[in-house]
User: What shape does this take?
Amino acid sequence: MFDKYKRDISRAFPNDSFYTVEIKESIARIIEAYIWRNPTVGYIQGFNFLVFRLRKVLDEEDTFWTLVMIIETYMPPDYYVEMYGVRTQASILQKIFRQYSFLPEVQAKFDDPTIQFNLMDNAISWFISLYTECLPEQASL
Amino acid sequence: MLDLFFLFGQKNNKVIFDVALGYLKTLQAQIVVAADLGVLKNEVFTENNESLADPELLMQEITSSMSALKQEHIDFYRPVCQKEAIDYAQEIKFSSYNRFKKVRE
Assistant: This one.
């Protein structure tokens, strides 16, 4: 688990000069502290984006406590635990998107056999990172 | 986006879907013309997409999704999706256990 998040930290937002070696070390400490605090949730790939975004506007300690608050207060209790909540939400999105034809042209594109875009798999990564992975900084915070 | 989760969070788990629909609506024009999966992944669904640079526009789409999507839609599918998620987790655990057993043997 510890190796996994270190790899993810080195890959996230490579073009943003804010994330110096010191800041990345700080992010590693925050994630590691969270793993020790809540081993039931531990670390899930994609989490790092959330910490990166928070760390840009908060100091190390505030980032940690904001992360704690998001995971343990704001999100449903089973959201990150073994990813039950995240998988459930992504599966609901896939079903309602198809059933209620909110965007039929988009659905047709996803179903196109030459494209085969898996909404569920992608939604899982959007949901884990609370959209911090797929939105620009000004929109994600 | 994080502000939205802070506003609604636990009280309303619908917000995550409203954002998803608003996000897809904002990108609709690009999704429809995308030539292949690579374009979708690397040019459309990326933080560098310029269509997402204006948070106001994105927020407008999210707001319209909030009224289009009903809580009943989500609640109807929740039980079956929860079961699927639990079954999937069990399957993963079972296959890792079998792999571990094989290695030990």
